[in-house]
Amino acid sequence: MENFDGLTAVVTGAASGIGRALAVKAASLGMNVCVADMNTAALDTLAEELRLAGVGVYAQKLDVSDSAAVKLFADECFSRFKSIELLFNNAGILSLGCCWEQSVEDWERLLSINVMGVVNGLNAFLPIMVAAEREAHVINTGSVGSLVAAAGMAQYTASKMAVRGITECLSVELQLQGLPIGVSLLCPGPVATNIAEGVISRALGDTATPEMIAEANAATVAGDPNFITPDICANIVFDAIKDNKFWIFTHPFSGYYRSLTNAVLNGENPSYSDVEFD
Known about the structure:
Keywords: NADP, Oxidoreductase
Domain Ketoreductase: 7-194
Family: Belongs to the short-chain dehydrogenases/reductases (SDR) family.
InterPro entries: KR_dom, NAD(P)-bd_dom_sf, Sc_DH/Rdtase_CS, SDR_fam
CATH topology of the largest domain: Rossmann fold
Protein name: Ketoreductase domain-containing protein
């Protein structure tokens, strides 16, 4: 896909971070943009910014774990703009803690958003996109955690590995049917977003103010030189869409992953070390 002008993009989890940057980038390329998020205040601010860019905008509060709500959102997107060319299943949350410390409710909440949110997006949008037989592209947001495990991140890792499997199957299925719909798995490394603020809030306790949480998150980002901005991430994503790349990595970690893969092939027991970006 080379020319985005006049086409339409859908972005979930659009009110902040990577989703916001993707929506702004799409608008800068002349695309109509449908955006959804649970944070209505931030979503309204984004929608106004997109309208100032001179493109069509539809913004809707949306819980992606609610399949019926996602279907209604999709119906409204197609009603307003007739076709969808880019679908970004981006909404996601993060939770930290050892496997045995996570409640069933915590597991269900995270998986309902990170995994079923992607499934609901595909079920709501893909049938019409497939029937249209138009050039299009689906981008599901995974993570470096789609490929490697990390201590304290069982829920998140499980969800992002599931997104990887879903996305790979989707790519094969569309190819086998000869459909002109590309598929990508976005595997970001450290990106300066507020996804960790919920975790930081719980760590700081009930007395933490929004300013304290934001300051702690900013300090975390500032302390790691690997962090990139959401805007840089969005540029990488759109370049990858143009090149029809399945794997979209924001950070190179081929050496680390090659070593991990060799260990698996050699039957070596798992051992943990921080992911190294090279």
